């Protein structure tokens, strides 16, 4: 067994495709050899049923990732399933509260909080997607010959202990005018 070679844990890909009985037996076998060995299961959906202490030790926080990227890109223009509001900040608060209600604090603190990986879009790609969408909308409004376009720019800065992300958002408003597009 791998634990005999110094392996301290297992990352189990698409782990939700195995049944609960398998994971309970797997955990018992692993913990007999090394009670401190870590079992992390990947599930792209609700995974709280796997992290009650009898199957996995942790999971990937894909719901947290999706909510965070939606907030950072102000993607609340399209309401996610179950969303109650259109305000990006309120929507983020709603989604974080929902996570806190589904997962015990110990589980969320031990979960893997990735903003990008080999299975998802990288964070800079995800952030750029929101900017490209706004750029396309801005360019589309500028291509109408009988429309004058005014651009307003807002900037948001999010700072963590190691990274600062600044997001500049340009929105356009159009009004009829006989002059050519700006």
| Low confidence ranges | 143-182
The span between the termini is 68 Å
The rounded Rg comes to 22 Å
Please indicate the percent range of residues in DSSP E strands (runs of 2 or more): 15-25%
Q: How many β-strands, per DSSP?
A: 5
Mean pLDDT: 74
Give the SSE string.
EHEEHHHHEE
Largest beta-sheet characterization: 3 strands, parallel
Helix content: 25-40%
Structural category is: alpha/beta
| Global geometry | elongated
Strand order of the largest sheet: 1-2-3
Quaternary structure state of the chains depicted: single chain
Individual helix count: 5
Can you tell me about this structure?
This protein has helices at residues 20-33, 62-72, 88-102, 105-110, 123-142, and strands at 9-12, 38-41, 58-59, 147-159, 164-176. Strands 1-2-3 form a 3-stranded parallel beta sheet. The chain has a two-stranded antiparallel sheet with strand order 4-5. 36% of the residues lie in helices and 20% in strands. The chain is elongated and about 50 Å long. The model is unreliable at 143-182 (pLDDT under 50). It is α/β, with parallel strands linked by helices. The protein is built from 5 helices and 5 strands, in the order βαββααααββ.
């Amino acid at each position: 067994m791998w634990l005999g070679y110094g392996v301290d844990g297992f990352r189990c890909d698409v782990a939700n495709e195995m049944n609960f009985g398998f994971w309970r037996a797997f955990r018992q076998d692993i913990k007999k050899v090394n009670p401190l060995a870590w079992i992390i299961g990947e599930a792209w959906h609700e995974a709280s049923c796997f992290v009650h202490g009898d199957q996995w030790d942790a999971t990937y926080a894909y719901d947290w990732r999706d909510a965070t990227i939606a907030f950072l890109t102000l993607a609340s223009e399209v309401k996610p399933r179950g969303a109650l509001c259109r305000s990006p900040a309120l929507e983020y608060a709603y989604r974080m509260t929902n996570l806190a209600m589904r997962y015990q604090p110990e589980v969320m603190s031990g979960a893997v909080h990735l903003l990008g990986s080999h299975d998802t879009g990288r964070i800079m790609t995800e952030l750029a997607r929101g900017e490209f969408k706004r750029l396309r909308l801005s360019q589309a409004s500028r291509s109408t010959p009988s429309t004058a376009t005014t651009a307003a720019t807002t900037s948001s800065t999010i700072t963590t202990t190691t990274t600062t992300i600044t997001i500049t958002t340009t929105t356009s408003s159009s009004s009829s005018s006989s002059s050519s597009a700006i």
